Amino acid sequence: MPSPLPFGIEAAVPDLSGPVVAGKVSRPSAGRGYDVVVVGAGHAGCEAALAAARIGCRTALVTLHIDNIALMPCNPAVGGVGKGQLTREVDALGGEQGRNTDRASIQLKMLNTSKGPAVRALRAQADKRLYEDWMKVTLSRTPNLDVVQGEAVGLDVSRETIRGLRLADGRHLPCQALVLATGTFLRGKIVIGDRIFAAGRVGELPALRLSQSLLDAGLELDRFQSATPPRIDGTTIDPDKMIPQEGDVTPLSFSHWETPSPRRQVPCYLTHTTGATHEVVSKHLHLSPLKSGSVSGKGPRYCPSIDRKLINFPEKEHHPVFVEPEGVTTNEMYLQGLTTSLPVFVQEKIIKATPGLENARLVRPGYAVEYDYLPPQQLTLGLQTKAVAGLFSAGQLNGTSGYEEAAAQGLMAGINAALHVRGEAPFILRRGQAYIGVLIDDLVTKGVDEPYRMFTSRAEYRLLLRHDNAAERLSGLGHGLGLLTDEQFESVQEKQRRFDEYAEMLESINIRSTPETDALLAALGTAPLEESQSAGRLLRRPQVTFDDLLTLLDQDDRDRLAAAPTEVIEQLAVQARYEGYIRRQLAEIRRHRATETLPVPDAFDYWPLEGLTYEAKDKLSRLRPATLGQASRVPGVSPADISVLLVHLYRHLRSDGDGDGAGDGKGADGSGLPGAADRSSLPGVSGPDAAGL
Amino acid sequence: MTDQVTGDGQGAGADAPNALVVGAGVSGCACAVALAGSGIQVTLINSAMDRVGLPAYGPDLVASEMGRGELEQKLATLPEPLRSIWLEAGMAPEDGGSSINVDRRRISVETKRLLEAVPNLRFRQGFVTDLRLVQDGDAGHQPLHAQHPRRAQVETIFGEVFEADAVILAAGLSLDAQTEVGCDVVQGGRYGEPASEGLYRALDGLGACFQTVELEVGARALERDFDALAEAIGARIANSGSLETRHLSGLASGSPTTAWPEGFPPAPHLDHPRLAMVLESSAASELAGEGPVISPDGSATREVYLDPGVPVGVVEDASVLTRMPVRVTAKTVAGLDGGRFGTAGGPTAVWVVGRAGGARTYLESLTSGVEVAGAVAAALRDRGCGA
Fold it and tell me: Greatest CA separation found in chain B?
């Protein structure tokens, strides 16, 4: 069956008609040795496997269910505030989620366009089937990558180093690095009302045997809980009683490297809970597993079930409910905002009490799943476990929630697994470079006591970490790692050159103070020019948009500037408007850089240090931060402790002669920071957005 | 009416007779579509909602020699567009050879779409844990010969109870099932899915007779290693003495009926033709004189399916075992009379279709689903349940 393309438009999708490229495949030998093994083929696992394979490692991706690769078991959407930035950064580095989402998207929307650029983020509704299928195709067409169905039951660890993976069926996969990305499957239990049963997801058996192996290897596990809302039959909703939410008309995409084909978009619908809904929940709250205590794990605060929302916010009258399509070839719709694990009959009442859903038919009930997770303070900034060399962990297993958080970690773990195999220093992104840096630093330094979700407020340098400048920040690094082609990197540099060209143009164009100019400025509500100014300087005024600026110019200058591509114009506007803030943030980063990246030797002993509190000594000894910056963020460590530590560190460095730290010799995380800093420099990028690198 | 007995017992309110189909595999979907086509209100209770209609045991449509013409004849009894779905996903060698393979993923996606569009057919996610017969308003586990039940109830793992005039069990190979994978034995008849313990016990309690069935499902390897695999298996075509590839072409003759909606990004399904090799190995084969077959398994993951006879070690040398060969052992319900479970000749509320009732191929599952649907519809009409 030929793939129908709309209106004869060329789709920029990969050519699938030919045979799979066999050329660059490294066929595993009879000994079945792999460089990297990834356990779990969800969002984290797929990124990790693709990254490791693309960097050149022989990689195996092990999954319980080949038919469920890259499943979106919860919200049929990627992106949003904070999360969209993560996906964008994954794409800028050469990861897959951005591209895959674009190929499967059925609605795209840029959020917060009325607010500042620091919080603007892209969100896409995706067709779940397409999302899975595209990822499967990509995996199967990636050289060096084998996908294997089987249950991982044991880690082969000797001398605190990973040697391989044992599968339940008896197969053994030797490897030099292993990435755990098991999601919610470890000893998963599903809870709904008073019913509890073992499952990773409904209809799928959990992984019951791997956890013990992790514990035996010296890792600690704890329990978390996640829940999902019901799905209904979309043909039974009443759209007239709800507010349609349409996508943006302007073409948008996560990926920097592919232009998605034009396509239709489908609407979502917005409704809300009512007093009647609340009555139903209150009346049956005693049946909630939260109340009855059947669920012991901590659940996410920011994606709480409707039961929890009503317990915590009893005075709030209406909670929003978004009715989202799960795809264009299915009728099922997802009820965002009605996450619950109340009994099914209660869920049906809740749905019926919601405007627009009075006749909606339940297809899949919502439920909670409780699972083992790995408290992430056991990991280094490169997502490697401190207990076992070569063992990495990514995704929901580390206590996060969300496909984007998972993909970001998966990409970094995959990269670092590959670097580990090569004996190279780890790849670490700092908080001032990327949301990915914020995410990982938060996880491994502070730990989690509920499933972690990214927000823009978590990033102190969010003005620098924008949707529009992800490629400028990160593509050089992706290219250096081998995840982007020369052409792709060149396209970013080309865009950077054009930006510089137009920025210079703005500065060189002079606007004189004339009565006409002053009149136009007055009409915009801003002060007249006292003396002639550059166009760039004028653009800094909040009342002056780029289009306004064009009206103030003479014909020649106007034509020259108007030729600028839209994204360049956007960036120029952002640059101008927020220049002061951006400059301040960059200065702050530079100021702190010395102390932020000051390495703490791997075997540094905190206990004899005078002036540190007991709590600081205890926390620091346990966490073993790699840098002073990371140490400052460890919970329980105060600024006074950091000042003391700083003095001792300098003293230590001076007495240590060659300054190579406490002689760990491992070259792994901890004292490898000079290497990481080298890796962080971004060649060829200029302009004020070179964020203190 | 399909009443839900839990909670406030709200019913559907419709007057049409009703049926519950348990399991949305190959036979369950065929049965549900056919029943709904007869005007019956059908609820399809299914646990694995993301694998609706998925042929789970390899891509071979039939177990033995069958020409394309004969296949089309047999498929003619399926209601449209189900028939077209199977034809369009099917491939056969152009020279008329007998292996017929299907793109399993495509069948699953298209079948779910089809079922969602059928009026009178509704999906409900649930894993059935109990089956009870209803007589005079009391539901119980009394053996069937003792009564003439007019209705039956099933309970799911979510705690929901559904009652209907006819319950059709399309449980596949999940009754008291286990799967041997290498040196591991796991519960269930499909790798990674739980076994239907509760349903098995309920049937047992109702006096069912069972037979044990063993099914070998072949391994899968990567399509990219196709040539190496063929060489490793050491196959030769008997009459030419050398390796030969055959082109497959689709079975569908007309234009596709279930196209991806216009204006949406295309699904990454691969076009025909695709390659398959029919090989003759030096080791004896049990497949009616044919050698072991390597067949394309599906578009998205680009795996090839190897007959169970192919030695695992040989595969591992040439390629990667994406899926291990497995042996599934499960119970099937014996003594069925045209799918009817229980009292011979008398009215019954429980039926069994597909592999759970002894079908051995997808084709048999499909036709059993449709035939039993016809019998159920007739029985409901006779009972005066309207239609």
Answer: 72
Of the ranges A53-67, A121-135, A648-662, B98-112, which one carries the lowest mean pLDDT score?
A648-662
Structure tokens at A461: 């340098």
- Which tokens go with A108? 């795209």
Q: Which residues does residue A369 pair with via DSSP β-bridges, in sequence order?
A: A190, A226
CATH class of residue range A486-577? mainly alpha
The helix (H) or strand (E) run that includes residue A579 is: helix A579-596
Q: How many CB atoms lie within 10 A of CB B386?
A: 12
Q: Rounded to the nearest 10 degrees, how much is the dihedral formed by the CA atoms of A112, A117, A121, A122?
A: 90
Mutate to test the interface with A, among B121, B125, B190, B225 (most CBs of A within 10 A): B125
Angle at A23 between CA A179 and CA B89, to 5 degrees: 80
Give which of B116, B134, B103 is closest to B32, Cα–Cα.
Answer: B116
A129: nearest CB among B6, B8, B109:
B109
Q: Which residues contact A317 (CB under 8 A, 6 or more apart)?
A: A274, A275, A278
Taking the alpha carbons of B86, B278, A62, A223 in that order, is the dihedral positive or negative?
positive
Please name the amino acid found at residue A585: Q
User: Is there a contact between B157 and A21 if contact means CB atoms under 8 Å apart?
Assistant: no
Mean pLDDT, residues A240-251 taken together:
91
For residue A471, count CB atoms less than 10 angstroms from its CB and return exposed for 0-12, middle for 13-18, buried for 19 or more: buried
Disruptive mutation site among B6, B8, B22, B50 for chain A (greatest number of A CBs within 10 Å): B50
When pLDDT is averaged across residues A81-102 and rounded to a whole number, the result is 96
Percent of chain A with pLDDT over 90: 54
User: What is the residue-wise DSSP string for B342-373?
Assistant: SSSSS--SEEE-GGGGT--SHHHHHHHHHHHH
Q: How far is B330 from chain A (nearest CA, A)?
A: 18
What is d(CA B304, CA B315) in angstroms, rounded to the nearest whole number?
11
Q: How far is CA A282 from CA A227, A306, A338, in A?
A: 19, 11, 14
**Integer Cα distance of B187 and B194 in angstroms:** 6
Are B123 and B115 in contact by the 8 Å Cβ rule? The answer is yes
B9 in reach of chain A (CB within 8 A): no
Instruction: Give the strand pairing for A59-63 and A36-39.
Output: parallel
Q: How many residues are recorded in chain A?
A: 693
Enter the tokens of residue B240.
């030419």
Provide the CA B367 distance to its chain's centre, in angstroms.
Answer: 11
Give B121: exposed, middle or buried? Use CB within 10 Å, 0-12, 13-18, 19+: buried
Cα–Cα dist A206/A126, whole Å: 26
Find out whether A288 and A344 touch, Cβ atoms under 8 Å: no
Percent of chain A clearing pLDDT 70 (strictly above): 88
Does this model's pTM top 0.90? My answer is no
What is the C-alpha to C-alpha distance for residues B246 and B248, in angstroms, rounded to an integer?
Answer: 6
Model ipTM?
Answer: 0.87
Q: Which residues of A303-337 are buried (b: 16+ CB within 10 A; e: fewer)?
A: bbbbbbbbbeeeeeeebebbbbbbbbbbbbbbbbb
A148 CB neighbours in chain B (<8 A) are 320-322
For residues B71 and B363, the answer to whether their CB atoms sit within 8 Å is yes
User: How does pLDDT run across B303-346, given as a tens digit for each residue?
Assistant: 778 777 777 887 888 888 889 999 999 999 998 988 988 765 56
What residue spans define the domains of chain B?
Answer: 13-59+103-217+326-382, 220-255+271-323
The two structure tokens encoding residue A113: 């366009």
CATH code for the domain defined by A584-680:
1.10.150.570
Phi, psi of A617 (to 5 degrees): -60, -45
Whether CATH 3.30.365.10 fits B13-59+103-217+326-382: no
Per the listing, tokens 């919601």 go with A354
Q: What is the rounded average pLDDT of the residues A397-421?
A: 97
Q: Are B369 and B38 in contact (CB under 8 A)?
A: no
CATH of domain A231-370: 2.40.30.260
